[in-house]
Amino acid sequence: MKKTLIVMIGFLLPVMGFAAGGGASFPSDDITIDWDDKASMQRGARTFVNYCMSCHEASYSRYNRVGADLEIDDAQVSENLIFTTDKNGDKTKVGALMTNSMGADYASEAFGIIPPDLSLIARSRGVDWLYNYLRAFYVDESRPFGMNNGVFDKVGMPHVLADLQGYQVPKMAMKVDANGDQIEAIVGFDIVKPGALSKSEFDQTIYDLVGFLDYVSEPYRQTRQNVGTGVIIFLFLFLILAYFLKKEFWKDIN
Ligand code: HEC
Q1: What is the CA(114)–ligand 1 centre distance, in A?
Q2: Best substitution site from 55, 133, 197 to test ligand 1's pocket, by max atoms within 8 Å of Cβ?
Q3: Are residues 113 and 152 in contact, defined by beta-carbon separation less than 8 angstroms?
């Protein structure tokens, strides 16, 4: 037992060290998404359609499905979440996919890269990464948009939430990286031009937005968990039944 424990600790330590050291990216906060907090996800959906969908799509999701899952009725969905028009110039219908009309050619020309579809981004990058990335834009005059990112160096995305967050500059310090080398790294940010929100309000806005992206990446999770619980309860009840049945069958033999 003792030996097993030592082996386990020996195995875990480097893994933990790597996770904590993890290179030079800043910030590196962890979050846990509350899947039952529908109000938070509704706010996230609003931020997404207002600030992200001009460039990014969530092309696996339909507006009305999102509405049903997040408890927003169709009329509200149409009023609060849909700001695009279809190819006839009419307002996009609630049954439509969450796409935009930015062409790939235009995107490549404007940004040098096509903004990726965000349907599965919470699964490929993880919610912690997204939470940090979206709060890590900082002023860097050497970049084409005058901005860089503490989590995604030389990112091609502009600081689209600047009116909410404001503008920030990095605080630098020497730090030891994952390989034990001394490197100059970002250890904090100073706001140089405030936005409409305070830091905690902005953090909350990003938390809500990431929660929405997490939902979009796996809309069936809630259902799956509920079904899972039901199955476990059924199996447990069946176990009790089987136990008494066994007792009944064997009582004359023993
Ligand atoms: C003006 C266009 C534009 C808007 C608006 C925009 N983005 Fe982006 N975004 C981009 C571009 C371009 C990239 C690709 C950057 C790169 O790879 O260098 C990108 C990249 C990303 C990535 C990284 C994808 C990856 O893993 O490589 C995420 C996540 C992201 N955007 C999320 C968002 C969110 C959330 C919003 C809304 C708050 C948003 N974006 C708004 C243009 C935009």
Answers
A1: 9
A2: 55
A3: no
